[in-house]
Structures are given as structure tokens and as C-alpha cells.
Write a structure and sequence with these properties.
mainly alpha, 3 domains, 19 helices, disordered C terminus
């Protein structure tokens, strides 16, 4: 199973869509082979030490192949050492200490013992991106774009921050807690990310989900959301041409009849993963609004196909899950459907008759067997 997961293939029947089941998946990133770097450093360092000791002790013959080493010692090393160290001591420490520290940091980073250089680089960029330094960094990124390059590290920092904030917001809403300032920060980060340029469907899905989550945030900055939506309408179609369809589905979720039709056609769908993720969000928003339990048919069919024998379809559904907070939207649908509607007084007369059987979506989200109330 581990080999299948590392290869990116679906594992029907075992791959589940729950966060709990996905927690043990192996990372798909290729680790750096630091043992090779350490071996290279050891060999090079050992050879240099042997040569230095050999020349200092005159172990090698002065008229043999090692004559070049003695010439370099007498005509290069001794003059440089005398000029920049011996004659300037202790002022030579002014340049030796910073150069030595930089060399040590680079070697530690190269050997994989720690990442001090990347740590300083990342935190400096984070400090710039959060303040007035954002504009100079953006200008630098656009200058690099003129020669076909990108500020890839800056984009990675923004995406990591976006993913962290999305996770915080979703977890807060899943516990029926206000997201606080995290949602406003998420909107700001995504606005900055669009300034750097969107590159894939995951970027589009993240913005779509933020616009959908805004329905749950009572204290959201409406002006900032409108600006984000307007800018997204300009940028997202470059990556996904059916962006308008996704936006319209978020604004006006499909009714129950349309939802049932989508669920019935899910097994033979040829829609891309982003479209499926967007429809999942729209159906969940519709469930929170009207509390129709029939909307759970979408998630029931999804679960059946996700664990089915069609590895290609299961893989597409898995990709769609990764594009959005799937467990959150499934849990909100189940929680909303479990609430009693005014026209369901039949369930009051017969307490033992449950009109909606638990699907486990709430438990998949937060491990809460008792369920949770859907935010409105």
C-alpha cells in the first residue's frame, strides 16, 4: 500500500476520504540525499587536510609533482596571509569572523544538519511581505518575469501562509467558533498571491473556497471581499476557463432536484477535479441554507465511488478532495441535514425513527461522534 501511495495512485477500498484515514500517507516529495553531500564534504575535506599537512611538514619532494603545491604556498598563500592577517592582526578579525560564519552556515545547510540560511531567508521575506516591503518584493518578482524567471520562494511562502490560514478558519468554523482575524488575513494573503500570479487550479480552488466561506463569517470585511472577488474574476479565468460557472454556483447553489441529478451522474462524469470540488462546496452551501437531507446523496455517491474499483475516477475524486476542505463541507451538509425541518414533525412523534442516518462526515472532520451544528 505504501508503494501505491508514493506513486500517487488510488487504493480503492483502503484510501478513504477521511482526514483520519489520510493522516498516515507517506509524503510524495523526494527527499534530498544528504548522505551524498556529507560523503563529498568528507572526501574533499580529508584531501585538503592531507595536502596542507604534507606541505607544512615538507613531506612531499620539492622537485616532484608536488612542486606546484610548494609554489602556491610560497607565492600565493604566504603573501595573502601576511597582508590580510599577520600585518593587520587583530583587525583581520573584522573580515574573518563574518566570512567564517557565512562559510560555516553554508556548510551546515549543504550537509543537511540544519537550515539556518533558508530560515533567515524565509523569515526576512515574511517580514517584508507583511509590511511595506511587499511592493519592492513584487517589483523584483516582475523584473525576474521579464527574463522568464519567478520569485518561487516568495510564492511558496505566500501559499504556505494561505494554507495555514485556510486550515485555521475551517477548524474554527467546524467548531462553531468565529475565525477572528484569520479570515481577514486569508483574504489579504490571497490578494497578494494574485498580484504574483496564479499558476494552477489549486490556486483557483483556494480563492473559490474563501469566497464560499465568507457566507459563514458575519464580521467579514465586505469591501475586501468584493475587491478579492472582482480581482479573481479577472485572474482566475486565465487558469480555469469555467470560473464563472463556479462563481455562479457559489452565489446560487443548485436546488435539490439538480443536486440529485448531479449525484446520479457522478459515476460517469468527465468533469475536471476543480469542477467537482466547486460543486461539492455549492451543494454544502445549499444544504446549510435549506437543510434538505436529499443533498447527502451527493456525498453518499462520492463515498461509494471513492472506494470503488475505478481507480481513475477514485483518483480524480481524491484530487478534488485535496482542492478544498472536503471534510468540512461534508460535515456541514450532514449537520444541516440532521436538523429538524418544520415539515418533519413525523420524527417528533416517533423518537426512535431517524430520518437521516449518520454518515460519519462530522466525525471525519473533527472526531466528534455527537455531531455539530452547521453555521449559518
Amino acid at each position: 500500500m505504501t508503494e501505491q501511495l508514493q506513486s500517487g495512485g488510488a487504493v480503492p477500498g483502503e484510501n478513504g476520504r477521511s482526514t483520519l484515514l489520510r493522516a498516515g500517507r507517506a509524503s510524495l516529495s523526494r527527499p534530498r540525499r544528504f548522505w551524498r553531500r556529507r560523503l563529498i564534504l568528507s572526501v574533499v575535506g580529508g584531501v585538503l587536510v592531507l595536502l596542507i599537512v604534507g606541505v607544512a611538514s615538507e613531506f612531499f619532494a620539492t622537485d616532484g609533482p608536488a612542486a606546484l603545491l610548494y609554489w602556491l604556498h610560497d607565492n600565493v598563500w604566504l603573501p595573502l596571509n601576511g597582508r590580510f592577517w599577520t600585518s593587520a592582526f587583530p583587525l583581520g578579525l573584522i573580515w574573518l569572523l563574518p566570512v567564517g560564519m557565512i562559510f560555516a552556515l553554508v556548510m551546515v545547510e549543504y550537509s543537511g544538519l540544519a537550515a539556518p540560511v533558508r530560515f533567515l531567508q524565509v523569515h526576512t521575506l515574511m517580514w517584508l511581505l507583511r509590511g511595506r516591503g511587499f511592493v519592492p518584493v513584487l517589483l523584483w518578482h516582475r523584473l525576474l518575469g521579464l527574463v522568464g524567471l519567478r520569485a518561487a520562494l516568495v510564492e511558496a511562502i505566500l501559499r504556505d501562509e494561505q494554507n495555514r490560514l485556510r486550515r485555521d478558519v475551517v477548524q474554527s468554523l467546524g467548531r462553531n467558533e468565529p475565525p477572528g482575524n484569520a479570515f481577514a488575513q486569508l483574504v489579504e494573503i490571497q490578494r497578494k498571491l494574485m498580484d504574483f500570479g496564479l499558476h494552477n487550479e489549486a490556486d483557483v480552488a483556494a480563492i473559490l473556497e474563501t469566497l464560499a466561506i465568507a457566507r459563514f463569517s458575519r464580521d467579514a470585511d465586505l469591501a475586501a471581499l468584493r475587491a478579492l472577488g472582482k480581482y479573481a474574476d479577472q485572474e482566475c479565468p486565465r487558469i480555469y476557463q469555467d470560473w464563472r460557472v463556479l462563481r455562479d454556483a457559489i452565489r446560487t447553489p443548485p436546488d435539490v432536484t439538480e443536486c440529485m441529478r448531479h449525484a446520479a451522474a457522478l459515476g460517469g462524469t468527465d468533469e475536471p477535479a476543480l469542477s467537482l470540488a466547486g460543486r461539492t462546496i455549492a451543494i454544502a452551501l445549499g444544504a446549510v441554507s435549506d437543510r434538505h437531507k436529499e443533498r447527502l446523496a451527493w456525498f453518499d455517491e462520492w463515498a461509494r465511488l471513492r472506494a470503488g474499483d475505478d481507480a481513475g475516477l477514485a483518483g480524480k475524486l481524491g484530487l478534488a478532495e485535496s482542492l478544498c476542505a472536503f471534510e468540512f463541507w461534508a460535515a456541514q451538509t450532514e449537520s444541516a441535514a440532521a436538523e429538524q425541518r418544520p415539515d418533519e414533525i413525523f420524527s417528533v412523534a416517533f423518537k426512535g425513527l431517524a430520518l437521516v442516518r449518520p454518515r460519519g462526515e462530522v466525525f471525519a472532520q473533527d472526531g466528534n461522534l455527537g455531531g455539530s451544528e452547521a453555521p449559518r
